[in-house]
Amino acid sequence: MAKYIATRLVSVIPTLFGISVLVFLAVRFIPGTIVDQILGADSIPTQETIDSLRAYFGIDQPIHTQYLRWIGDAVQGDLGTSWRTSQPVASMIAARLPVTIELTVAAMFVALVTGIPLGILSAMRENTRLDHVIRIASLFSLSVPIFWQAAMLILVLSLWFNWTPPAGYVGPIEEPGTNFRMMILPSIVLGTSVSATIMRMTRSSMLDVMRQDYIRTARAKGQAERVIVWAHGLKNALIPVITVAGLQVGYLLGGAVITEEVFTLPGLGRLVLGAIHQRDYPVVQGAVLFIAAMFILINLIVDVIYAYVNPTLRYD
Amino acid sequence: MTKGVHLMENATVLRAHPRMPQWRRSVRLTFRNRLVFVGGLLVVALTLVALFAGLVAPYDPIATNSSVALRSPSVEHPFGTDRFGRDVFSRAIHGSRISLWVSLASVAVATTVGTILGLASGYFGRWTDLLISRVLDILFSFPGLLLAIGIAAFLGPGQNNAILAIAIVYSPLIARVVRGSVLAERHKEYVEAARLIGARHGRILRRHVLPNVLSPIIVQASITLSYAILIEASLSYLGLGTQPPNPSWGTMLSEGRPFLERAPWMSVFPGMSIMLAVFAFNLLGDGLREMLDPRLRSG
Question: Phi-psi bin for A243: left (phi > 0), alpha (psi -120 to 50), beta?
C-alpha cells in the first residue's frame, strides 16, 4: 500500500508542474500587461516610465526567469500580491477557503443522503413505476442549470412562504443558527445536481452486485432480504460510488463558483470571478493554481481509498 | 426500461433479421429504444425551432418597446415581456438558435480534436501516448466549469471564444474515451492483418480503427452536447459568453435576475428552455449508450 501511495504521489508532480506552466503562460499571453492598464489607453508615457513600471512588476525579465521566480515563491506559500488590493494572494485565498469548503462538504452531504437511498430504492424496485419516476427525475435534475434552480427556489420560498435566506455571511462557529439558515439553500442547489449522478451510479452498481453468485447463495441459505441488501449488497455496491463521489468534488468546486455568485457567498469561486472581472491576474493565477492543486489532491485521496477497499488495483 | 431488457430486445432484432441492411437495422433499433426515440424527437423539434426561429417567433427579439415593458404572460406575449418591452417568447425561440449553435460547434471541434488525440495516443503508444496523456491529465486537473470560465475570461467575452473554451474543456474527455477504445482494438487481428499487407498507419487508423471506435464517440458526443448547453448558459449568465442584446438563454436569465420577484417570467421561461434542451440531449445520450452497448456488438 505504501508503495502504491508513493507511486501515485510521484505521478502527481509532473501534472502539478504542467498546471503551473499552463496557468503562468495563460496569464502572460493575454494581450496587454498591468503596465498598459495602469497607464491607460489615453496617456502618452515616456519610455523611462514604462521601463520603471515593467521593472517594478518584474515583467522586464525573460519569461523563464519570471516563471522560476513565481513558482519558487509559490512552493513556499507566496502566491504574489493582488494588483487591486495589494493584499497577499495566499491570505486572500485563506480567508475565502472555509466558505467554499463548508459549501462543498454540505453539498456532498446532501448529495449522498439523497442519492444513495434513492439509488438503492430504484434498484430494489427495478422496472416498477417508482424506478421510472426516480430515473426520469434524476435526468431532469442533471438538466437543470444551478443558477436557475437557485433562482426558482428563492422565488418559491419568498413568494409562497415569505422566507428569504439571511444576507451577508457569518461563520458556523460565530453564529451556527444563522450560518445554517444561510447555507441550507446553496447546499441543496449544489447538492441535488450531484445527487442525480450518485443515484444513477448506486442504482447500476447495486443491480450489478445483486446479480452476483454470492447474493444468490445468501438467498439460497434463506438469509433475510434486509441482511442481503444491506450487509452483502450495499457494502460491495458502494465501492464504485466512493470513486464517483470523489470525482464529483471537482464538479462541486466548479459549481461552487456559480452557487457562490448567486447566493453572494464570499468563497473562492467569487474571488476568482471578481478577479477575472477586475483583471487582477495574480489573484486569478494563484486561486486557479490552488483550486487545481486541491482537485488533484482530492483525486489522489479518492484513488488511495479506492485502492484500499479494492486491493486488485494496487497491483496494476 | 432497463439495460438488460433493451439488450435482449435489440439482440432479437439483429438475430431475427440477419440479412437486414445496416441502416434499416439502425432505424428499427432507434424506434425500439424509447429513450432514443423520445430524446431524438425532442432534439429534432428543437433543431427545427432553431432553424426556423424567424418564422416561429412573433416579434423581433432585439427590438425594444418601452410602452409594454415588464408585462406578464398574455395572449399577445405568451412568456411576457422584459424590462425593455422585448417579447420573452421570441427571445427564447431565438435563444435556441444561439444555444444550439454554440454547443454544436464546440462539440464538433472537441470531437474532432479529441478523436485525433485519442487515436494517436492509443494507436502509437510509447512517447506519443505519454505526452498526450500528460497534457490530458493537466486539463483534467481543472474543474470543467472553472476551466471554461478561465479560458473565456482570458480570451475575452464573446460567442466564438465561448465555443473555443467549451471545446478545450471537452476535447480531453473525448480523447480519453477514444484512447481507451483504441487500446482495446489495436492488437486485434484485423489491425495486425492490415499492418501485414503493408497498409500505412494513417490508412489503418482511418479505414479500420476509427469505424470500430465510432460508437463510443457518438455516445460521448451526444452526452457532451448537453454539458455544452449548460456551460454556454453558465458563461453567458456570468457575462463571458453571448453578449447582450443577443438573446442567449443564459444572458436572458442574467437579465431577469434583478426582476425575479417583480417579473419572474423573465427567468422562468429561459430556464425551462435550457432544462428541456439539456434533458433532450441527456435522454438521447442515455438511449444511445444502451443501444450501442459494446456487449451487444460482440454478441
Answer: alpha
| CB contact set of A253 (below 8 Å; sequence gap of 6+) | A100, A104, A268, A269, A291, A294, A295, B143, B146
**Phi, then psi, of B87 in degrees rounded to 5:** -75, 120
Contact A104, A256 (CB under 8 A): yes
A86: left (phi over 0), alpha (psi -120 to 50) or beta: left
The C-alpha cell that represents B7 in the structure block? 439488450
Kindly report the nearest CA distance between residue A179 and chain B, in angstroms.
24
Residue recorded with cell 428541456 = B276
The cell for A255 is: 459549481
Could you give phi then psi for residue B81, rounded to 5 degrees?
Answer: -125, 160
Is B57 in a helix, a strand, or coil? coil
Which chain A residues contact residue B39 at CB under 8 A? Answer: none
Q: What ipTM is given for this predicted complex? A: 0.83
Residue B280 to residues A139, A217, A307: CA-CA distances in angstroms? 10, 42, 37
Contact list in B for residue A276 (CB cut-off 8 A) is 149-150, 153, 240
Distance of alpha carbon A277 from alpha carbon A272, whole angstroms = 9
Cα within 13 Å of Cα(B243), Cβ side: 7
pLDDT tens by residue, chain A, 316 residues: 788 888 888 888 888 898 899 888 887 776 666 677 677 666 677 788 878 877 777 777 888 888 898 889 988 989 988 888 889 999 999 999 999 999 999 999 999 999 999 999 999 898 889 998 998 899 899 999 999 999 899 888 887 788 877 777 888 888 898 889 889 999 999 999 899 999 999 998 898 888 888 888 988 988 888 888 888 888 888 888 887 888 788 788 888 888 998 888 999 999 998 888 777 888 988 998 898 888 888 888 888 887 777 766 555 4
- Return the biggest CA–CA distance within chain B: 76
d(CA A80, CA A86): 9
Instruction: Give me the amino acid identity at A44.
Output: I
Closest chain B C-alpha to A247 CA, distance in angstroms: 10
For B250-270, how does the pLDDT look when each residue is reduced to its tens digit (9 = 90+)?
Answer: 999 999 999 988 999 999 999
Summary count for chain B: helices (H), strands (E): 15, 0
Other CB atoms within 10 Å distance of the CB of residue A143: 22
Nearest to A15 among B138, B274, B278 (CB): B138
